[in-house]
Amino acid sequence: MATYANLENVLNDIEQSTGLPNAHYTDSTLFEEEKHALIFSEWAGLAVASEIPEPGDAKPYEFLGMPILMVRDDDGAVRVFQNICRHRGMILVSEPRRIEGAIRCPYHSWCYSKKGKLVSTPHVGGPGRNVHKSIDRGTLGLVEIRSHVWMDVVWINVSGDAPAFADKHSDLIDRWADFNVPLHHGGNDSRFELGLDTNWKLAIENYCESYHLPWIHPGLNSYSRLEDHYNIELPGLYSGQGSKAYRQLKGGDGEKFADFHGVGEKWREQAEYIAVYPNVMLGVHRDHTFTIILEPVSISKTIEHVHIYYSEANTQEKLRRKNTAQWKEIFIEDIFVVEGMQRGRSADGFDGGRFSPIMDTPTHCFHQWAASSIQSHRSLMNAAE
């Protein structure tokens, strides 16, 4: 049985608590453990459904080393499969493309429907014989990964045993019921990626709190001040911050984005920014939303995939680009912070740090979720030995 740093201090009340030990940001063995304890066991963000807008669209991903294929079937439903043929484990789709007929393995031409059913096994019984009694097509379909689409995020549960997404996240779904409307992706000028030399957890921790605004985001803090913000947390599920001073972006002639249809009065000057555990960061405003999906590449490398949405399709291009540039500038301002904290985790003897009992409660909430989930995973693994 492996020996790990004690996590009990992380589970203390915030006044006595420390953060996760250094090794959880620097040790590749713990990265592998957390892959299962914190990500595969939860509803994690894979991508956005807008990446495959039409039936037949397919896009491959590598998710923490696992080859995955996201497909929109002929009925318009998003499906997620392991991107491997059931014959010899060959990768099925290597590049994003439109699948007109079946998903065909490039190795021996076994074919699958867009719903994952094995439909063709050429010459499997010998030349000219496409069936064999030992090859049961009914049980050899693609391995489907449990998935759910909400806020255009394609959430996946690799372990297959998490509670249903709508049940687990009913509180957040109700909290943001005003945004249960069509979300229109802004297109190519409303998506971008940022590469970070940091552990993915530090990106979540930074996003959770507004404490850093005056020093890291002085421009944003000039109109959405620290004192205009409030903390949000639901232990075990999500945490973040809100602002009571949201200011709509305007163009040179005073034009603005249209509000989401039926958005409540609450959102006239309010916005919320929530990290949904483990790896999705969401922001909602009266006239646009954004999604950031964190891709943990390694113990110290992360990619942020950013997507911005509006209430109308093909909304004002010039203003849309201005909005993307504004958010990109804000997110880039955070990079040196999360990378600096990553470098700081190489300091021997750092005990995980302390939390402000007032300003850091959302970040502390995330640490407690992580520590509790890791401990539960270890108990299960130890019981299985």
Given the structure, what is the number of helices? 10
Computed over alpha carbons, the radius of gyration is 23 Å
**How much helix is in the residues?**
10-25%
CATH topology term of the largest domain:
Naphthalene 1,2-dioxygenase Alpha Subunit, Chain A, domain 1
Describe the structure.
This protein is an alpha+beta fold and 385 residues long. The chain folds into 2 domains: 54-145, 3-layer Sandwich (Rieske Iron-sulfur Protein); 169-365, Naphthalene 1,2-dioxygenase Alpha Subunit, Chain A, domain 1, CATH 3.90.380. Helix content is 25%, strand content 25%. It has 10 helices and 18 strands. Strands 11, 12, 13, 14, 15, 16, 17 and 18 form an 8-stranded antiparallel beta sheet that branches. A hairpin with a 6-residue loop joins strand 6 and strand 7. Helix 2 packs across helix 10 (361-384) and helix 5 (200-208) runs antiparallel to helix 10. The protein starts with 22 loop residues before the first helix and ends with a helix. The mean pLDDT is 96.
Q: Which labels suit this protein?
A:
385 residues, 2 domains, 10 helices, eight-stranded antiparallel sheet, four-stranded antiparallel sheet, Naphthalene 1,2-dioxygenase Alpha Subunit, Chain A, domain 1, alpha+beta, Rieske Iron-sulfur Protein
